[in-house]
Design goal:
The chain is α+β, with helices and mostly antiparallel strands. It has one domain (3-202). It contains 7 helices and 5 strands. Strands 1, 2, 3, 4 and 5 form a 5-stranded antiparallel beta sheet that branches. 36% of the residues are buried. The structure holds iron/sulfur cluster (SF4). Iron/sulfur cluster binds next to loops.
Length: 205
């Protein structure tokens, strides 16, 4: 992972500004306290992309059981703050761009058996073969999101990363939150990846 990929985007003219990502290490047991696939995957039914990506519900088999063994996760959160006067469309565009940058950095961090679980649907191909009724053409490129695996993302962010998710009843939120994880086969790998994210966060902007 290149720390430069994770730098703040301090463009004062931008309608939204992404903060440096925060990372915490969580044990598998702690992560599983927020695993509620029936409820969370149920929410996916209202998504317009439901059933169009192999990385998203509905699943023939529980996807978490298909992944390799992991003992710990590096849970990564990033806030994209809304500048004064930003429109909803501007905010969403900036947020998606920031999210894509973070997800790319996380995929580049897949060392020593770590697996990135990134926000949003799989972007392994320009068009997912599921919409064509064909099996995934690049399983090594497929990446799930925490939601698709059945994790309560708000619970993870607030309960483990101590990052409040802001959903106001009216108007724009103060910030949007991206949440992802690197599932690691050992605490040593988790500590190594955690250190990389800390290093990136602590670099002078
Ligand atoms: S790798 Fe391609 S075919 Fe497989 S889930 Fe991702 S987008 Fe779909």
């Amino acid at each position: 992972m290149s720390p430069q990929n994770l730098d703040n985007e301090q463009d004062v003219a931008s309608p939204a500004v992404s903060e440096a990502p925060q990372a915490v290490i969580a044990s598998r047991a702690d992560m599983m306290r927020y695993h509620d696939p029936e409820r969370i995957q149920g929410y996916c039914q209202s998504c317009e992309k439901h059933g169009q990506y192999w990385s998203c519900p509905p699943f023939a088999e529980p996807p978490l059981a298909q992944l390799g063994e992991w003992t710990h996760a590096v849970l990564v959160t990033q806030k994209t703050r809304v500048a004064c006067g930003a429109t909803k469309e501007e905010l969403i565009e900036c947020f998606l761009e920031a999210r894509q940058t973070l997800c790319k950095a996380m995929r580049n961090s897949e060392v020593d058996g770590a697996l990135a679980v990134v926000a949003g649907h799989c972007e392994g191909c320009s068009i997912c073969t599921r919409s064509l009724g064909i099996a995934c053409c690049a399983p090594t490129r497929m990446r799930y999101s925490l939601e698709a695996l059945g994790f309560d993302v708000t619970g993870l962010a607030e309960g483990l990363a101590e990052q409040k998710v802001h959903w106001p009843a009216h108007g724009l939120p103060d910030y949007l939150m991206t949440v992802g994880a690197l599932l690691c086969p050992s605490p040593e790998v988790a500590m190594r990846l955690y250190s990389l994210f800390r290093l990136a966060r602590d670099m002078p902007q």
